[in-house]
Amino acid sequence: MENGSHWKPRSWEQFQAQQLPRYPDLLELERALEQLQTRPPLVEASEVIQLSQRIADAGQGKRFIVQAGECAERFIDCQPEIVTQKVQLLLQLTALAAQGLRKPVVSIGRLAGQFGKPRSDEFEVRGADTLPTYRGDIINGYEFSASSRTPSPSRMLEAYQCASATLDWIRSTRAHSASAASPSEGTIYSSHEALLLPFESALTRWSDEFSGYFNQGAHFLWLGERTRQPEGAHVEYLRGIRNPIGIKVGPAMSPSELVELIALLNPSNAWGRITLITRLGAGKVSELLPDFITAVRGACRNVTWSCDPMHGNIVRMSDGLKTRYFDSIMSEVLLSQKVHRDMGSWLAGLHLESTAEDVTECVGGEVPVREEQLSLNYQTYCDPRLNYAQSLELVVRFCESFRGLTDHEVVSAHEKSLRAAENSAPSSHPAPV
Ligand code: PEP
Ligand code: CO
Asked: Which residue from 195, 258, 279 has its CB within 8 A of the most atoms of ligand 1, so it is best to mutate?
């Protein structure tokens, strides 16, 4: 790894990259990137700095973070009603957490750019046909045909348009409802995995005001579990931007690898720069998380801890559908929180894959989705998401355990969430209890 002085938005090109598509037409790729480089930024550097400060506060126990949204956003969902539903769910989860934890809560959406997916398998086989796997709408199409699955650079321009329209819509609708909230409430920050580096670097701009490079395609970017090699292109890219960044921490990582990564990505040890998003699995978290906390503490690294209870708890059913059991998701959240509390550490955030729709992708919950119901409304293009009722239930139960609220307070928080749900959600949603 070179030292910081040689970093440029495209210096990652000199490093080994995992998970990047091979575009058949490199000229077309360069043309698309040239266009993207001239497009206006999607977020302001000052908003990015503000988010870093809020994440810094969260790391020090003064705030909480709810980061939630799609596993894989789809271009077809860039529609006003659908975006509004997503925003309402995120704000409801935020309000529940704020009430339950009695702290200001930062809302970060997995939206307006969560279009690229890392995949474990290079190819998908259906019957006699083998085609490249779907890697997210920004790279190729979900439809199982050779032309759709071929990576196309023009998809990056479409992703830019969808992200831009999504953010515009959120800003305009938030502006209309701003009178109900104080100006800092209701701010939604955007985030996605920093996966498709050609796209990310095309939206990386120098800020004279802050004397640094910012990814101006999203406020927050994270490093995925499959692209975290210290000598790899994704780490090289992320170390040079000033945005707050997340590091996914899976069970295959060692505490010393984590400390090394943090040092590479945050040499100045600034609070707010690094959010560690652990995704260890319900069965492993109690064993593995303490050593990560001990190692990070031992190295005196300032980090903000978050829990992703989704990605360590994926199972495949006999018919091939991927699912997650609500009980495992809930259990990872509660066990993570217990480990942090027992060690005097502050669990500062939740990172969820959730949708406001009444999907049947995860099994369980108080309004149960049963195994045999999974195929009834299974919509996701990638990982199974918590549905509306499951998302609310998770946050309510997390809050209950977190602060040891009295029964009366818990019931009242839950009731309020039901009322909020009734007031703002389409009537097709089942009530969360
Ligand atoms: C994700 O967050 O969608 C994801 C792929 O996570 P991870 O890198 O932790 O597997
Ligand atoms: Co996912």
From this structure: 279
